[in-house]
Amino acid sequence: MAECCNALDDDDVRLTDLFDNALEMYENIIKSDEASSSSKLQREIKNCIKLLEKTTHLINAAGVFSSNETINEVSSQNVKYLLIPALLGNLVLKVQSPDRMNALETSEIYFKDFLKRIKEYEIIDSINLEEQEDERDSIPQQMNLQQLAMQRNEKLRKYKEQKEAEAELKRLKSLMISDDDEICRNYFLKYIKNFINTSLDELHLIKQEKPLAKHLSEMRAKGTSLKMQEKDEKPNIRPLKPIIITRNEVQKKVFGAGYPSLPTMTVDEFYRERVAEGIFPAHGSSHGKVLQEMTDPEVVKQDEEREEIEKENEIETDDPNYLEKARRMDEFKDTHKRGWGNRMNRS
């Protein structure tokens, strides 16, 4: 990023370089495609936070800002430092930490400090920041169609303003190659104003998230982790129910009327369910016959006729396997008289 002023002493140059590097790092983090939990991005976030904190210490030590001054009295090269609390607030929210409550409270302090300074320096004098924050917190749970439409239009308006502001920022940034103090000042004032709605929205979300973070913090304090709680919870097991399998809809209705507590299904329904579960092969599969074919009387009759024809062919051709099987059956009949089965203990 181009520097706005060349006539600076060594300390000022070091300060402006620190901030410019931190801002460039921040913008790269925002545009990054890395997962928010990735170690690389988390390392960059923490480094950027440290850089901005160091910049803050130097600003305080140098006494860059004084009380009872407005934005018109702040030099062009110092306007950009008013962004620091907002940048830190946004970065802290992105830190992956087990103590989420601490991150929320820290971020809340940064955003409120940013908005307080904006008001004190009269950067926006026509908007009451407290009222805007209250409006976000007092959104009714149930709204009529007119209220919903108004809310939607308001969101669209803010979205449009946000896009226009981003486009203007991009345009002004392209002009930063010139060491024009006025361009530099306008760029960072636009940047600051662009962060106002972002800060208000984040404060609203922080307020909503705090109860959950507090609950999780209390659970950890009691030695109960979320994972242990999930492990103790029994999984929802599908209860076993008796199923009466019927062949057609007529039987299904009869059984359903006679056994109202038993869920019944036809063979087709049973087969479709088993196919869906992957137990039975689908229609057209080469893995055996489907249930409908196995229970169809016409199919059964055709199978019997085919077996009879095959048996006759074996007799006519003196098939060795068939003759051996017939010989064994004759021997069995000779040694086992008819009626020699279970005689019910009678001699």
Biggest sheet layout: 2 strands, parallel
Secondary structure class reads: mainly alpha
Strand share of the residues?
under 5%
CATH architectural arrangement of the largest domain:
Alpha Horseshoe
Radius of gyration: 40 Å
* Largest beta sheet: strand ordering: 1-2
Flag low-confidence runs: 2-10, 237-247
CATH superfamily label of the largest domain: TAP42-like family
Give the averaged pLDDT, no decimals. Answer: 74
Estimate the helix proportion, in percent: 55-70%
Shape: rod-shaped
**CATH fold title of the largest domain:** Serine Threonine Protein Phosphatase 5, Tetratricopeptide repeat
Domain unit count: 2
Multimeric state of these chains? single chain
Number of strands: 2
| Gap from first CA to last CA | 112 Å
How many DSSP H or I helices? 13
Identify the CATH class of the largest domain.
Mainly Alpha
Order of helices and strands: HHHHHHHHEHEHHHH
Quick synopsis:
This protein is mainly alpha-helical and 347 residues long. It contains 13 helices and two strands; from the N terminus they run H-H-H-H-H-H-H-H-E-H-E-H-H-H-H.
Primary descriptors:
347 residues, mainly alpha, Serine Threonine Protein Phosphatase 5, Tetratricopeptide repeat, 2 domains, two-stranded parallel ribbon, 65% helix
Topology summary:
Layout: H1 10-31, H2 39-62, H3 84-94, H4 100-120, H5 129-137, H6 145-174, H7 181-221, H8 226-232, E1 244-246, H9 249-258, E2 264-266, H10 267-276, H11 291-295, H12 297-316, H13 320-335
Parallel strand pairs: 1-2
Helix pairs in contact: 1-2, 2-3, 3-4, 4-7, 5-7, 6-7
Pfam families: TAP42
Biased composition (Basic and acidic residues): 298-314, 322-334
InterPro entries: TAP42/TAP46-like_sf, TAP46-like
